Amino acid sequence: MMERFETVLLRTNPDARFDYVVKDILRDKASGWSHNYYSNDTTIWKKGLATHNQEIYKIDILIKRNKAAIEAYEKKITNSKLPANHPDYKALEKGEMEEIDTSFVKLAKENIHLADEMNKQQDEVTKYFQLDYITRSLYTNIYCLRNQYQLDGDLDRLRKGITLAYTMYYQSMGQPLPEVLPQSASATATAW
Fold it and tell me: Which of 83, 137, 162, 189 is 20 to 30 A from 170, alpha carbon to alpha carbon?
């Protein structure tokens, strides 16, 4: 069972690595909330997701085209084997069976390769969908924390919440937290 965000928040210690987000929110507050930072949940993963979905669409069209051609060849062969007095009977011309066999094999092999490529593209879509979802969740959490800070002005809660949101994000991404960067003397002064 997962613990509630608020319960975990109480045990969270603010992490200075994420103070830049808190400073963004404080800058937004100083501007009268006119910047509305973190309200847009569009991620860098959207383009990859769209690209791989487009590839799947193109591959699907090729597979369907090849299947339709294979079915047409099968119908031609079937019709050539009907009795000569059957209304759908049509004899194959000299050398046509070899052409059909060659095309049939080529299209079937192409569809096998296309199906493999489709699977690879679907794996990429799954990966980009997960990355997009995790990142959008981070942005949504930050925006909710920003909105809560607008209401209650609790800076400690905001700092803890931002730390928790990023901790959850890195954990979901399977990544360690970023290293602490040394700060210059001018960067150590804080507004809070």
Answer: 189
